């Protein structure tokens, strides 16, 4: 059974601290939590109220690691039930990918590797198939698919090339 507390350090290491790159479509981010995501979830006002500047970029910058971890648990880990992935390495890999590329894409990668219909929703069949495969074999297949996703993304949108090396490091990180 995968555990959030074992997975979150990997996500935080990959996401790093505050960034405000003009090439990042998510806008300002801290601990990987983006301005665009906070706005979409209706959570930005909460951060702005705590920050008291009413400046969205400053509100992102003042977010604490604990707040980011709370968002990750409530919005990224719990809904797809990653704890149903028996191997911690798989739970961490899919969770980390979901944070970076979106849950649906991360889940479709897993389902494609498993030869299942790619609906982007983790259900009993996906969990059963993922848990039936050697975790080390599944991680390598996932890494390859993840890296190809990033390469394809950059081919479609060359301005994202500045992120490719980091994305590939993330894809091939064994946690």
Flag low-confidence runs.
none
Number of strand segments:
2
Report the sheet with the most strands, covering strand number, pairing sense and barrel closure. 2 strands, antiparallel
For the record, the CATH architecture stands as: Up-down Bundle
Overall shape: globular
What proportion of the residues form beta strands (DSSP E)?
Answer: under 5%
The CATH class: Mainly Alpha
The averaged pLDDT comes out at 90
User: Order of helices and strands, N to C?
Assistant: HEEHHHHHHHHH
Structural class: mainly alpha
By DSSP (H or I, 4+ residues per run), the number of helices equals: 10
Number of domains: 1
Give the strand order of the largest sheet, numbering strands 1, 2, ... along the chain: 1-2
Helix-residue proportion: 55-70%
- CATH superfamily label: Chitosanase, subunit A, domain 1
